[in-house]
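Researcher: We're teaching a course module on how sequence relates to structure. For the next exercise, students receive a sequence and then see the predicted structure as tokens, so they can try to spot secondary structure elements on their own. Here is the exercise chain.
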Amino acid sequence: MFRAIRRAFNEGREAFGGRLCHFSVQRDHLHLVVEAANREALSRALHALAIRIARAINRVLGRKGQVFADRYHMRILKTPTEVKNALRYVLENRWKHNPARPDYFVEQDFCSSLAWLDSAVVAPQTWLLQSAERALRIARPPRPAAGGWGTPQPGAAGAVALFRTSTP
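Model: And here is the predicted structure for the students to work with:
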């Protein structure tokens, strides 16, 4: 199932003016951290990504119809502290949901963006998310020379949002 969701992330990570920068996929819900130039682009990008994810899940399960119980909950993040806390929450979400069963042998959650920084997500372009990654010491792999993520814009303005949706 996760492989299909990750494929949907790969295909839609820069769709409709939004950029998927981080995610956490859980058993019954997922969290996304998405950037966009404005609220309208953010809404379009999240809608397109949700459709891709739903189609991927339905394809794996061999069914049609609604995948998510509700549309989504979106929160626009405006301060460096909000972005850093939201990013920490998303990336540590696995351990929040399984406190009784810690995985002592695996330090990294393979269903979060930390395991896929080179493929399933894009580097942030807003100063808010770039500074949050630096504060949390998230090290991205070297950028591809041509045709890769593009050049980050340190002064770029835009919306950073935390997106949560659940399955029925």
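Model: If you want an answer key for the exercise: Residues 145-157 have pLDDT under 50 and may be disordered. Residues 2-166 form one domain.
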